[in-house]
Amino acid sequence: MTKTISVEGKVILLTGAFGLIGMTLVKSFLAQGAKVVLADVNKKQASKVEKELKLLTKKSDYLICITDVTKSLSIKSCVNSAIRKYKKIDVLINNAAIDAKFDKSANDKSNQSRFELFPIPLLEKSFDVNVKGLIMMTQTVIQQMLKQGFGNIINVASTYSQVAPNQSLYDFGDETIRYKPVDYVVTKSMIPNLTKYLATFYAGNNIRCNAIAPHAIFNNHSEPFLKNFAKLSPMGRMADKDEITGPFTFLASDASSYMTGSLLTVDGGWTAW
Predict the structure, then answer these.
(1) Which residue, 6, 30, 13, is CA-closest to 144?
(2) Given 6, 13, 34, 47, which residue has the most CB atoms within 10 angstroms?
(3) Domain limits, the chain
(4) pLDDT for 110 beyond 70
């Protein structure tokens, strides 16, 4: 029997749920009939998100958890709340991450630091969220998946877990020097191999683990950035946010049931040359 690309009825726990990728996926999954647990540390944004979701679906279809993935008790509270409400977790999507931004509203100065000058405290902060937080959340959810006898984990990697940043992308020809900083690159680089580790470790327990590597989703970026990107990308453009929903839906669905330990790259050909 053919397995369809469907997430209807699945319970999906998504970290970093209030961000650009997170909310795009939340709305897509809800529209497809999934139940979504939104885990995010940004308490101030929770009421805004709640108002958005109330206009889209029923309260029974989603659960908002203010969750700090670097805190064990916070993670356990979220997972326990999800189990109380939905009795299971079909899919975990590890999306929470610290990443220096380059859109028009970016005010993060970490993207102005060369490697030899990059502040170690910022590196440690990124490790806490992007590595330790991902591992701690996965450990907790896998305990539930082992109890229920099945599970599906999707880690969000990056093209920069496969290739180094082309730093010329961030040169806008003005007086400000910008770089893609080392913290994001080094922390995302661990995801493909951790994914393989988890996939092989739990294959006998009916738990799959794959990763997806999106790249450069448009979010009000400046014209200099867009021009640089177009020159360096085979497709000549950034991704629209809705172009990532299909690949995530595929990995979250039973249509990908024979996939584990894989990295699905969605980058407009960026890593192809």
Answers:
(1) 13
(2) 13
(3) 11-107+127-165+187-223+242-264
(4) no
Domain 11-107+127-165+187-223+242-264 belongs in CATH node 3.10.450.50 = no
Please, which residues have CB within 8 angstroms of residue 241's CB and are 6 or more apart in sequence? 20, 21, 24, 217, 218, 219
> Pairing mode, if any, of strands 91-94 and 207-214?
unpaired
Distance, CA of 114 to CA of 132 (rounded, Å): 24
pLDDT digits (tens, 9 = 90+) for 67-107: 999 999 999 999 999 999 999 999 999 999 999 766 545 55
Residue 218 structure tokens: 């448009």
Q: Which two tokens stand for residue 132?
A: 């330790």
Question: Using alpha carbons only, how large is the chain's radius of gyration in Å?
Answer: 18
Instruction: Give pTM, 2 decimals.
Output: 0.95
